[in-house]
Specification:
585 residues; alpha+beta; Rieske Iron-sulfur Protein; four-stranded antiparallel sheet; 12 helices; 18% strand; binds FE2/S2 (inorganic) cluster; binds fe (ii) ion; 2 iron, 2 sulfur cluster binding; 2Fe-2S
């Protein structure tokens, strides 16, 4: 079997590749035939730089630690022991990956309430996101230059400034203070060098998402302006949407209780889908199957890696070909097409490292319409592109994500524990004998050998939180989504209102039913038309046939009580949405 390496620039459509142009990328690619099981531990399976590097601290990549270019034949992956090294690498540039020279998505624009500032986090830093008078979303470090009060607790004022609600200083979009009420003369009359400034970061609004550049200052603004956002044209370019070339769904945003690297592992791992998402997508008992992954873009520090499987990764699935494209530091594209020339489904997953142990996922689907007119819509579009209200899709998406959260949250803690216990520096203990894990192996290779030491958390970032065993806390939806989502907050407010209204209507109906029955019974007793056994003469009402109106009122009251109870449950679901695999039969 020949190792195939397709050279593709990031962002192109994989489906446009002319098979005749498939070629070996460069002469340095070699093939290994080691029969050791693959294990991502220092010194086993992959080369580890001398001394290794901790996963959650920022360091420059040690000189001379550039990994060698390797590739492997995958024909014998199906049986153990497997080939030791499955990672095909492209040209490796000098220097290590620069995490702070990239755009990171922070939020979906339609989830943000522009009338107030919002707290957000990026690389362990607290940020205040707000929309200024020109309509542009701005991002400040979340402290006021006066006495460090959080600006995200301030106010967006009618003049388009951000007001620190502690002493009333105001700031314009650039970060410059424009009003300081305790000063003897207006700030505009101060020397420019003396005017206080909030720390401001470059922002960009694209495809319905606000992106933040994690460095500040004039040089950062220049670098940011010259750097493209990760993604691909059919998703990012609104003109392509307008011309019908592609259709982007609305975005789902969620803060997940596990680290950025575990999110990426999960996104690059199609084998978990029918098992972890049993009954949602596939069946855990019938659908898992053997599949291989071919490299379509070799691993490099700057461009990541892409793999493709031409064999469905689930039994009974219509998806003929799937491509997993990791674009560091924050984007994964999962492209799938069911029929040649038909529409291509792209699950677009942004993952922003917000603080140790937490990742903000920002996800949508983009359908790239194919050459075949009226081709069959991708089956998974029903999850992303439907007529349901957005908040219902947000809730459903949260439930879907929760099916993985419990694994990834504890997996990260187990890995951390092993790192400490064994005093090793790279992920230890994975046993990946089948090619379904090749994209995960490639990603871990990137993270541990090319990423310059892992996510560069800001000094003073919060520590990794402990493992959470309480499902009420692990699946907290209020803090992880609803608090920051104006759509869900509005839906919750309406749900509360309806719940109260329906509960009151239920009580009124029941009361009306009883009252009309009592009146009718009393009239019947007075008329002497009720036959009452002498031994229970004190309960004459029970012997009166209720009028139809009373029955309807009681039935309506009971039904409304059930609706009110269900609305109460829905109200709770906006706060906690638990899931248990043991109960998902
Ligand atoms: S701390 Fe912000 S105005 Fe005083
Ligand atoms: Fe929402």
């Amino acid at each position: 079997m020949t190792t195939r390496v397709v050279s593709l620039p990031t962002g192109t459509s994989f489906w446009k590749v002319n098979r005749a142009r498939v070629r070996s990328r460069h002469g340095r690619v070699t093939r290994l035939h080691s029969k050791r099981p693959f294990c991502l531990a220092a010194g086993r399976g992959v080369d580890s730089p001398a001394g290794g590097r901790p996963s959650h601290t920022a360091h420059a990549m040690p000189a001379g630690s550039t990994p060698r270019a390797v590739a492997t034949d995958v024909s014998d992956w199906d049986t153990r022991p497997a080939p030791a090294d499955s990672v095909e690498q492209g040209e490796v540039e000098e220097g290590s990956f620069q995490w702070t020279k990239h755009w990171y998505p922070i939020h979906a624009l339609d989830h943000l309430d522009p009338t107030r500032p919002h707290h957000a986090m990026l690389l362990g830093r607290d940020l205040a996101l707000w929309r200024d008078g020109s309509g542009k979303w701005q991002c400040f470090e979340d402290f006021c230059p006066h006495r460090l009060a959080p600006l995200s607790e301030g106010r967006v004022e009618a003049d388009g400034s951000l007001l620190c609600a502690y002493h009333g200083w105001r700031f314009e979009g650039s970060g410059k203070c424009t009003a300081l009420p305790q000063a003897s003369k207006p700030v505009s009359e101060w020397k420019p060098s003396q005017v206080p400034c909030a720390v401001s970061y470059p922002t960009k609004e694209l495809a319905g998402v606000v992106f933040v550049w994690p460095e500040s200052g004039p040089r950062a603004a220049e670098e940011a302006a010259a750097t493209a956002v990760r993604g691909f044209p059919e998703m990012l370019d609104d003109e392509l949407q307008a011309t019908g070339k592609s259709t982007r769904s609305s975005w789902a945003v969620r803060d997940l209780p596990y680290g950025w690297d575990f999110f990426m592992e999960n996104a690059l791992d199609p084998a978990h889908v029918p098992v972890s998402h049993h009954n949602f997508v596939g069946n855990r008992y019938q659908d898992p199957t053997f599949f291989n992954l071919d490299t379509v873009r070799p691993l490099t520090p700057a461009e990541g890696v892409a793999h493709r499987t031409d064999r469905p990764f689930m039994q009974k699935t219509g998806m003929g070909t799937t491509v997993l494209d990791f674009q560091p530091p924050c984007f994964v594209r999962i492209a799938a097409r069911e029929e040649e020339g038909g529409p291509e489904s792209n699950i677009c997953l942004y993952a922003t490292p917000i603080k140790p142990g937490y990742t903000r996922a920002i996800v949508c689907q983009t359908i790239v319409n194919g050459d075949v007119k009226g081709g069959k819509k991708p089956a998974n579009s029903v999850f992303f592109q439907n007529a349901l209200p957005k908040w219902i899709n947000h809730m459903f998406g949260a439930l879907f994500v929760n099916q993985d959260s419990v694994f990834l949250h504890h997996q990260e803690k187990i890995v951390e524990h092993r790192l400490r216990a064994k005093n090793v520096k790279t992920v230890d203990g994975y046993d990946m004998p089948t090619p379904s894990d090749k994209a995960v192996i490639a990603f871990r290779t990137w993270y541990e050998r090319m990423s310059g030491g892992g996510v560069p958390w800001a000094p003073g970032s919060p520590p990794m939180p402990p493992a959470e065993r309480d499902p009420e806390k692990l699946y907290n939806l209020w803090d992880s989504h609803v608090r920051h989502c104006s759509i869900c907050k509005a839906a919750l407010a309406k749900t509360k209102l309806w719940q109260k209204a329906v509960a009151v209507a239920s009580v009124l109906c029941l009361f009306a039913g009883i009252a009309t029955y009592s009146a009718s019974a009393a009239a019947a007793v007075a008329a002497g038309s009720v036959a009452i056994p002498s031994n229970i003469a004190s309960l004459p009402l029970l012997w009166h046939t209720p009028p139809t109106s009373s029955l309807w009122a009681v039935v309506a009251g009971a039904l409304l009580a059930v609706v009110a109870w269900q609305l109460k449950r829905l109200e709770r679901a906006f706060h906690v949405l638990t899931f248990s695999h043991a109960d998902n039969h």
